[in-house]
Amino acid sequence: MEKDKSSILEILGVSTKLGLTSFGGPIAHLGYFRDEYVKRRKWLDEKSYADLVALCQFLPGPASSQVGISIGMMRGGLLGGIASWCGFTLPSALALMIFAYVLKNYDVGHAGWLHGLMIVAVAVVAQAVWGMARSLAPDRTRGTIAIVTAIITLLWSSAYGQLILIALAGLFGRFFLAKSEIPETPQLGISISRHAAVVAWVLFFGLLIGLPLLRQIAPSHFLAVFDSFFRVGSLVFGGGHVVLPMLQAEVVPTGWLTDSQFLAGYGAAQAVPGPLFTFSSYLGTVMNGWQGGLIALIAMFLPSFLLVTGSLPFWDAIRRRPNFQSILKGINAAVVGILLAALFNPVWTSAIHSPLDFGLALAAFGLLMLWKLPPWVVVLFSAAGGALISVLS
């Protein structure tokens, strides 16, 4: 079905609001998405959302951005995916490009309001874990899967470890959850054809293999930058902070940036909402001005577009098969466990350092859960609370 212009503008508007208010990293983003897309706007049901999260946990790249792109594609096709990405990504990318120009030496790492934004992430993730656990791990078996997954994730902190745990949970679900009743699964409403999906896969692997070869045949600085950022966006599992050492290995040893420039940008990246992968826009801007920032940003996220476009049509068909439904029940319970582990580390451990911090997190949680205030209001409240705590401390 052809998507009209109004639906694209709606996607852009909603995702821009999220791009301006979604602080706290990728796990918190999933909480913001769930509140906006599932609970408030009902663009998809809880289970379909969880299935999308499970898919994007499997794919390399920024999982939260891929979930946002997927929802945009469900709502408005390829243009909807682009609109969703633009709204969620460009606010932080533009802010970091400005940082690159005028705030390279500005230290935001100890700002009180920034600490408040880290605290509100505790409340957002806790709300998401609570809601998803009630839906996806409601019985003893799946609750146990979630708890065991959380414990192992805390002890074995590895992106590949998470993939193994998800695969094992799916295998367990196939054999031990298969006999339970499987509810009817609605279609995701993907308008992308399988032909387009195959083209996306061909482009993905073609660029991944071809760019390094082209870089050797026809040396060019901008081609080298595009290749480096495309490769990082294609091969990093776990997203978020996992990408930092890979980026550093690409830009510092080559002499494109100094260590101090890299770390200054990382500090700035903590002060903006949206995906951490927009750090690429800062790096590119430092290297080559706004043109370099744009090239690095596009190269960093292009793999996610190709992977999501190539996966969604096949995923929608596979996920509705009865046998795969039992696998997904185990996988979704494991995803709840991974979110539960992330609630402690890094979300809790990086934000809660005193009774005042815990009090502010509780207040934010109450405003979300009991008073049902919009997340952006709670974000502003927590930023002000963090600034006040810094004055009192």
TrEMBL record:
Where does the record place a coiled coil?
A: none
Topology relative to the membrane: Multi-pass membrane protein
Give the subcellular location.
Cell membrane
Organism of this sequence = Paenibacillus cremeus
Protein's UniProt keywords contain Transcription regulation: no
Q: Which family is this sequence assigned to?
A: Belongs to the chromate ion transporter (CHR) (TC 2.A.51) family.
| GO molecular function (one) | chromate transmembrane transporter activity
Query: Pfam families this protein is in?
Result: Chromate_transp (PF02417)
What this protein is called in its record is Chromate transporter
Q: Which residues cross the membrane?
A: 78-101, 113-133, 145-172, 192-214, 221-244, 294-315, 327-348, 373-392
One cellular component (GO) term of this entry:
plasma membrane
Tell me which UniProt keywords the record has, alphabetically.
Cell membrane, Membrane, Transmembrane, Transmembrane helix
Query: Quick check: keyword Hydrolase in the entry?
Result: no
- What InterPro entries has UniProt attached to this entry? Chr_Tranpt_l_chain, Chromate_transpt
